[in-house]
Each structure stands twice: as structure tokens, then as C-alpha cells.
Amino acid sequence: MLAIILAGGQGTRLKPYTLVFPKALVPLGDMPVLELVLRQLKAHGFNEIILSVGHLSHLIETFFGNGEKLGINITYAREDKPLSTAGPIRAIDNLPEDFLVMNADIVSDINFRDLYETHKRLGGLATIATYRRTSKIDFGIIEFDADNRINGFTEKPILEHSVSMGVYMFNRNVRQFIPENQSFGFDELMRALVREKQPAHAYPFNGYWLDIGRVDDYEKAVNDFEIIKTDLLPDVSATTPLEG
């Protein structure tokens, strides 16, 4: 099974950590976050990895090389210009029928193999891992009609949303909806699939998940890591972290 990991972002929301390291190499316990992701993918049967790299890519390539130390095969797709989140998929040729795509900065105990098998069973072009998040509005919400007559008021409501985890399964036919050599995001791809009435499914997940793209989420993941390490990577005690 093949996974494409998007590791080309500049990590602007994670400064000052990313002034020196690419986001994929920020430490989580005794290993970079991308090493954790790679070990998880290998444990779930993903032995072919394509790293889509851009910002500070030489550091990522120097650290992981061809993946031999981890027992996987790593190749690199290098972005000459930023292609956003979905654009790199169009730039990669000879993809298998179905493949996983994910951000490099995801900390989760999701079962990637189950996601893969669910996607195959559903048979759509896309399967998106989703997570329930709550958002508190710190203001009173006023509702009114066309005549400005107030007909509702909610004090500081708490809203629930199903959000994308940044982990996807795709069928290779999805590439026809991605423009070539252009910056194109997953949000644009999802809107295109919905507009064209193409089959796409959600994969609800309720375990542990953090996108460490923001400083507060990264610091939470660092604090959580030692506590939940065996849940994130059950065989972590039997592994030796790589040395770049």
C-alpha cells in the first residue's frame, strides 16, 4: 500500500519552531513527528511512501533518506512551486488504484489500515477521516428577520462540527478533478467532487487526534506524548529513534 505525505509547507503558524526545522521535523518526545507517522504507517502495512517536500526539503531528505532504516521505501516528490494540499497528487504519476494522502503533522491513533479497507469497501473516489470538534462563540448570537425584528437570541453557544483530520484515501481517478501544475487545495477538490456528484464518504473517528500546525496544539501533543506513547505506537519500546 502506498501513502503520500504532504511535508512541503512552511509551517508559518508554528513559528518560532519552524524557523530552523521544517514542520515535519519538529520533535515529539524522542523523535520527529514525521518519524512517528512513518512508523505508524509501516505498522498498518504502508511500505511505499512518497514524501511531497518543498520548504527545507534537504533536511527531511537527509534525515530519512530512502527509508531503509525504517524498513520502508521512501521516494520524494519535489515541488518547484507551492501546490497547496491537493496539487501534489496531480504531479505524481503511476499511482496505484487507491492510496492514502495525509499531512505530515498529524498526531493520532487512527487505524490507517481500517481506513484503507473501508475506502475499498465503499468504492468511492474519496474517503475523508473526520473528527468532532466543538467551537465556543464568545458572543451572544442575535437572529432577526428581513425587517430587522429580533426573533432569537443565544448566549455564547457551543457549536459542534465534523472537521477534516487531514487524512484521506483516494482513488486515482480523482486526479482528473485536479488542475495540472497549479496550487489546488483539498477544499477545492472536495467542492469539485460534490459539484460533479462524485462519490465521496466520511470516515468518522473518535480516538486521539491533533493537527500540530498551531503552537498550542503542538505543545499539547508534546505534553500528551509520553502519556499515550504506547497508544500512538504500541511497539515504540522496541524501536530506536532514528538519528539524522
Q: What can you see in these coordinates?
A:
This protein is an alpha/beta fold. Helices cover 26% and strands 31% of the residues. The chain is built from 6 helices and 13 strands. Strands 5-4-1-6-11-8-12 form a 7-stranded mixed sheet. The longest helix has 18 residues, at 215-232. The chain is globular. 35% of the residues are buried. The model has no long low-confidence stretch (mean pLDDT 89).
N-to-C order of helices and strands: EEEHEHEHEEHEEEEHEEH
Give the structural class: alpha/beta
Report the total helices.
Answer: 6
> Biggest sheet: strands side by side, in what order?
5-4-1-6-11-8-12
Q: Approximately how much beta-strand content do the residues carry?
A: 25-35%
**Termini, distance in Å?**
26 Å
What are the low-pLDDT stretches, counting only 5+ consecutive residues below 50?
Answer: none
Radius of gyration: 19 Å
Sum up the overall morphology in one term. Answer: globular
Question: Sheet with the most strands?
Answer: 7 strands, mixed
Helix coverage percent of residues?
25-40%
Key attributes of the depicted protein:
244 residues, alpha/beta, 7-stranded mixed sheet, two-stranded antiparallel ribbon, 6 helices, 26% helix, 31% strand, globular
Topology of this structure?
Blueprint: E1 2-7, E2 27-28, E3 31-32, H1 33-43, E4 48-53, H2 57-64, E5 73-78, H3 87-91, E6 98-103, E7 106-108, H4 112-122, E8 126-136, E9 140-144, E10 150-155, E11 158-171, H5 186-195, E12 200-204, E13 209-211, H6 215-232
Parallel strand pairs: 1-4, 1-6, 4-5, 8-12
Antiparallel strand pairs: 2-3, 6-11, 7-13, 8-11, 9-10
